[in-house]
From TrEMBL:
This is HSP90 family protein. InterPro entries: HATPase_C_sf, Hsp90_fam, Hsp90_N, Ribosomal_Su5_D2-typ_SF. GO terms for molecular function: ATP binding; ATP hydrolysis activity; ATP-dependent protein folding chaperone; unfolded protein binding. It comes from Mycetocola lacteus. Keywords: ATP-binding, Chaperone, Nucleotide-binding. ATP binds at E42, N46, D81, T173. The lineage of its organism: Bacteria, Bacillati, Actinomycetota, Actinomycetes, Micrococcales.
């Protein structure tokens, strides 16, 4: 069927949509606004906008918003402003038409930046707490004062007030609400104070609350996050107090954020504790100094999880719920600029306040590493402060490079654990296995010109020499005895010589090393032509192939033939002492390599320890454990 109107039909007259106000209020309260408490935010916002509109006229007084909560003596809530006011025509048109707003640019149909409202639905939020809204207003443009009454059943009336009726009504607007019994607490003095302070504490107009004794108390204070502060000033204290309230602890530092492009400014507080890396810090955000939300999620870049911000913006667009921003180019730009401000601050600390940076690094290592990986400039400044684990203990990249001039690292934690025990103290190995570490270490040559080498476990264990030929018979017998001792944990045993000599055993799980051990074993058995064939073949091997399957590449215990303890064990005749000692060496090598112990491993270790203790105190013959 065509959507065009058939020529023969009678032209239909255009009629306006009917709006079911109850449905709209239900939509607002259940699906747009998070809670009925936003009635106060919407009133504050309308009052603030009316004051702004009046300030554009000559001789406007300073803006003033006054709120009288519901009390036992007076069950009506009143909100007054000394703003621009409304004429009868404006009231009929603007207050009574859902979606009509005076605050949009007529041509662009966009929010005008000096106003907070734009959607033309805010006043309806009062129907979430009251069945009737009464507006009495006197326009700054002259004309008779008016009274507009709107009902939640969708009807309204508007009338001009006589001067007698409007006696004492100044230019501006007064909104009265009589709360539904269930909602009365939302309009009570305590809740009204709490909500006014939360939403409107930093508004650029004076907001006053009526007290029990009919006096007025101002709740507005200067926003401590909008001005640069002098060190040691009361203003700085107020700024830190706000950060302490926000984080629950005194911030490590405060970083000024200024994004002129979207009229955004505020403070990023550095958390004094490390949050989980996945936890994106939500920002407390004000729009035109009115609270938008305590937890706006998308204003910071992902990596900025070490700060929490308090921000005010005049240039970003709120969604209709006024609890988050429209995800547009301006938001994207602001997010990037906030990221740049954080980066600039870190760089400044690196050059002017290294102690601040080192404090920051000790708490927020991971966030900083994640930033440095994608940012050469930042990496150059941050690298010296970043902590690393080395076979000679924990240190920083800067200290390590200063001491050793070069850096050798493993790609994984597992590799590190296997080589850490045998790395020489003159050339320690760095653990590049923690998140971002290897990627950062690889940046060093380009940034500082210093040498960085990735090492392989197999290269480090290259010095695993087979015992001399004349001792092979003895070592083969020890290997067999030791392997028998370890049958429950199915671990092979090889004897090799390596440094340091005081390390009796090494647990080897690296496949390349295991292949090499197997190779030397085959070469030992088949000297001459066969050993050449095998070594040529090994050079060609880069991964798994059919020949490899025949080799035994199970993890194994490497006993150190250079260790006096192992040599002493080789001479030991007592089978129980030998077995228990081998079991203990196995457990010790597992623990030194940070390998998790299985139940069998633990049972083996406990049994060995118990027996050795019993044997050493002379109980061995009476009660060995098995
Ligand atoms: N206190 C007031 N003084 C003067 N005019 C007002 C006042 N409150 C509301 N108005 C007029 O009524 C219109 C509709 O108000 P409403 O709160 O429903 O929407 P809005 O403020 O324009 O937009 P939003 O839905 O985004 O809050 C306003 O655009 C304004 O012209």
């Amino acid at each position: 069927m065509s959507l065009d109107t058939p020529e023969t039909s009678t032209p239909a007259s255009a009629r306006p949509f009917q709006v079911d106000l109850r449905g709209v209020v239900d939509l607002l309260s259940r699906h747009i606004y998070s809670s009925p408490q936003v009635y106060l935010r919407e009133l504050l916002q309308n009052g603030r906008d009316a004051v702004t509109a009046r300030q554009k006229l000559p001789d406007a007084p300073a803006g003033l918003l006054r709120i009288s909560p519901v009390t036992d003596a007076d069950p009506v809530f009143r909100f007054t402003d000394n703003g621009v006011g409304l004429t009868a025509t404006q009231a009929a048109e603007l207050l009574s038409t859902v979606g009509r707003s005076s605050k949009r640019d007529e041509v662009l149909n966009l929010r005008r930046e000096d106003f907070l409202g734009q959607f033309g639905v805010g006043l309806l939020s009062c129907f979430m707490v009251s069945d009737e809204i009464v507006v009495r207003s006197r326009s700054a443009h002259g004309e008779a004062p008016i009274e507009w009454r709107g009902h939640s059943n969708g009807t309204f009336s508007v009338r001009e007030l006589s001067e007698a009726e409007a006696a004492g009504l100044p230019v501006g607007t007064e909104i009265s609400l009589r709360p539904r019994p269930d909602d009365a607490t939302l309009l009570s003095p305590a809740r009204v104070r709490e909500l006014t302070e939360r939403f409107g504490r930093y508004l650029p107009v004076d907001v006053q609350l009526e007290q029990g004794d009919r006096s007025w108390e101002s709740v507005t204070i200067p926003a401590p996050f909008l001005e640069p502060v002098a060190a040691g000033s009361a203003h700085e204290e107020a700024q830190l107090a706000l950060g302490t309230e926000l984080l629950g602890a005194r911030p490590l530092a405060s970083i000024e954020i200024v994004v002129p492009g979207t009229e955004t400014r505020g403070i990023a507080y550095v958390l004094p504790y490390a949050p989980p890396p996945s936890a994106r810090q939500a920002s407390r955000v004000y729009l035109g100094r009115m609270l938008l939300d305590e937890r706006v999620e998308d204003l910071l870049p992902d990596w900025a999880f070490f700060v929490r911000c308090v921000i005010n913006t005049d240039g970003l667009s709120p969604t209709a719920s006024r609890e988050s921003f429209v995800n547009n180019e301006a938001l994207e730009y602001t997010r990037t600029e906030i990221g740049n401000a954080l980066r600039r601050w870190i760089m400044l600390q690196a050059t002017t306040a290294p102690h601040v940076l080192s404090g920051l690094v000790s708490v927020h290592q991971l966030a900083l590493k994640s930033m440095a990986v994608h940012d050469d400039e930042l990496a150059a400044l941050m690298l010296p402060w970043l902590k690393i684990e080395t076979s000679a203990g924990d240190t920083t990249i800067g200290e390590h490079l200063e001491r050793f001039g070069e850096l050798r690292y493993t790609d994984t934690v597992d590799e590190f654990r296997q080589v850490a025990a045998i790395a020489s103290p003159e050339s320690p190995v760095v653990n590049g296995g923690y998140v971002y570490d290897a990627a950062l270490l690889r940046q060093i040559p380009a940034l500082t010109g210093q040498s960085v080498t990735r090492i392989e476990v197999s290269d480090e264990l290259d010095s695993l020499e087979a015992p001399p030929l004349h001792e092979r018979q003895l070592t083969a017998a020890v290997e067999a005895r030791a392997e028998e001792a370890l049958t429950t944990v199915q671990t092979r045993v090889s004897i090799r010589s390596f440094q340091p000599a005081d390390l009796p055993a090494l647990y080897v799980a690296d496949q390349a090393v295991l292949r090499r051990i197997e190779r030397t074993k085959a070469a030992d058995i088949a000297p001459g032509l066969w050993s050449q064939v095998i070594s040529t073949n090994d050079r060609l091997l880069t991964g798994k192939n059919s020949g490899e399957g025949e080799r035994d590449v199970r993890a194994r215990l490497c006993l150190n033939w250079s260790s006096p303890l192992v040599r002493r064990l080789a001479e030991l005749d007592d089978p129980l002492v030998f077995r228990r000692s081998i079991e203990l060496l196995y457990a010790q090598a597992m623990l030194a390599g940070h390998r998790p112990l299985t139940t069998t491993d633990r049972a083996l270790m406990t049994g060995a320890l118990t027996d050795l203790v019993q044997l050493s105190i002379g109980l061995g013959d009476q009660n060995p454990t098995d």
